C-alpha cells in the first residue's frame, strides 16, 4: 500500500470523522501530503554514498479561507503529515538532520485552493524518547540512534559540513524513483534542452529561462491567465521549474506545485497554455 493511501486511511479514522468537513475544503490534506513528498525530492542533498539529506522543517502557506478551515486541526494534521514525510523518507532512504515538523501559515496573497510549501534543513541534537514518532509540535522525538530518519544507526555518521564543492543548503535533487547523477553522468553542456509551446520550439541555452506575459520574459506567453513573470526553468542535473509568485500557479505533470523536477516530456500548464519540456543528450 502506498504512503499517501495509508495517510488517507489514518485521517479517516481520526476523531470520529472530524476531518470529514475539512475534506470539503478547496485544499485537501492529501494534496498537501503530495506536495511535501515533492518538496523532499526537489531539495534532496547527497552528502555521501550512504546518505541523502532532505528538509525536516516544512511551512505550508494557505489562503485565508483554507487556513481558517484547516487551522483548528493543525496539531493533528501536522502530526499526520510529519508521519507521512517520515514514511516517505523510509521508502526513499532519505535522512533528516533533526525532528520533522510541519506548520500551517496563512498567506494573504493566495487565492482559495492555492498553496505554497517552503522547507529548510534544521539540525538538532539527538535525543531519545520512548514511543511516538516525529510530529508537528512539542511531541516531536528523535529518530533511531545515530541520527534522524533513514538509513538507521548502521550508516556512517553525518559529516559536520557537506563535502568540498557542495552547498550546505537544500538544492533540487532526484525525484522519486530516480537516482542522482554520479561522477559518470553526462555534463550539462552535452545535454540539449528546449520547450515546445503550441508547436513552436524554444531552445534553452542559458542557466535560467523566465516564462511570462511580459515582453521582458525570455519566452513570452500571450495568455491572460499567465502572470508577467510567471515561472522560471533552471537547467541542471536535474532541471527544475520554479513558480515566481504567479497568480494562478503552475501544474507539472498533473500536480499543482510551486517547484518541481523536470524530465524529458514533462507537461507544464500555465494559465490555459501547455508547455512540453524536452531534453536529449548530444
From TrEMBL:
<dbReference type="InterPro" id="IPR008984">
    <property type="entry name" value="SMAD_FHA_dom_sf"/>
</dbReference>
<keyword id="KW-0597">Phosphoprotein</keyword>
<dbReference type="InterPro" id="IPR000253">
    <property type="entry name" value="FHA_dom"/>
</dbReference>
<feature type="domain" description="FHA">
    <location>
        <begin position="209"/>
        <end position="257"/>
    </location>
</feature>
<dbReference type="InterPro" id="IPR042287">
    <property type="entry name" value="FhaA_N_sf"/>
</dbReference>
<feature type="compositionally biased region" description="Pro residues">
    <location>
        <begin position="153"/>
        <end position="165"/>
    </location>
</feature>
<dbReference type="InterPro" id="IPR022128">
    <property type="entry name" value="FhaA_N"/>
</dbReference>
<dbReference type="Pfam" id="PF00498">
    <property type="entry name" value="FHA"/>
</dbReference>
<feature type="compositionally biased region" description="Low complexity">
    <location>
        <begin position="166"/>
        <end position="185"/>
    </location>
</feature>
<feature type="region of interest" description="Disordered">
    <location>
        <begin position="121"/>
        <end position="185"/>
    </location>
</feature>
<dbReference type="InterPro" id="IPR050923">
    <property type="entry name" value="Cell_Proc_Reg/RNA_Proc"/>
</dbReference>
<feature type="compositionally biased region" description="Gly residues">
    <location>
        <begin position="132"/>
        <end position="149"/>
    </location>
</feature>
<dbReference type="Pfam" id="PF12401">
    <property type="entry name" value="FhaA_N"/>
</dbReference>
<protein>
    <submittedName>
        <fullName>DUF3662 and FHA domain-containing protein</fullName>
    </submittedName>
</protein>
Amino acid at each position: 500500500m502506498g504512503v499517501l493511501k495509508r495517510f488517507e486511511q489514518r485521517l479517516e479514522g481520526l476523531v470520529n470523522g472530524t476531518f470529514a468537513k475539512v475534506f470539503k475544503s478547496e485544499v485537501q490534506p492529501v494534496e498537501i501530503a503530495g506536495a511535501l513528498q515533492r518538496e523532499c525530492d526537489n531539495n534532496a542533498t547527497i552528502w555521501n554514498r550512504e546518505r541523502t539529506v532532505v528538509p525536516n522543517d516544512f511551512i505550508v502557506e494557505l489562503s485565508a479561507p483554507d487556513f481558517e478551515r484547516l487551522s483548528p486541526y493543525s496539531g493533528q494534521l501536522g502530526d499526520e503529515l510529519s508521519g507521512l514525510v517520515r514514511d516517505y523518507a523510509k521508502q526513499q532512504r532519505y535522512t533528516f538532520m533533526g525532528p520533522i515538523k510541519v506548520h500551517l501559515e496563512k498567506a494573504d496573497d493566495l487565492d482559495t485552493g492555492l498553496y505554497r510549501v517552503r522547507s529548510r534543513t534544521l539540525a538538532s541534537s539527538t535525543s531519545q524518547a520512548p514511543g511516538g514518532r516525529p510530529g508537528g509540535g512539542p511531541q516531536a522525538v528523535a529518530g533511531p540512534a545515530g541520527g534522524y530518519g533513514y538509513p538507521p544507526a548502521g550508516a556512517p555518521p553525518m559529516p559536520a559540513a557537506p563535502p568540498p564543492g557542495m552547498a550546505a543548503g537544500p538544492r533540487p535533487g532526484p525525484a522519486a524513483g530516480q537516482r542522482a547523477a554520479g561522477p559518470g553522468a553526462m555534463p550539462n553542456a552535452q545535454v540539449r534542452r528546449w520547450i515546445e509551446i503550441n508547436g513552436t520550439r524554444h531552445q534553452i541555452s542559458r542557466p535560467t529561462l523566465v516564462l511570462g506575459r511580459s515582453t521582458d520574459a525570455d519566452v513570452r506567453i500571450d495568455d491572460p491567465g499567465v502572470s508577467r513573470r510567471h515561472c522560471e526553468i533552471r537547467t541542471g542535473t536535474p532541471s527544475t521549474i520554479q513558480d515566481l509568485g504567479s497568480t494562478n500557479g503552475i501544474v507539472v505533470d498533473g500536480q499543482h506545485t510551486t517547484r518541481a523536477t523536470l524530465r524529458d516530456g514533462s507537461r507544464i500548464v500555465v494559465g490555459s497554455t501547455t508547455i512540453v519540456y524536452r531534453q536529449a543528450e548530444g
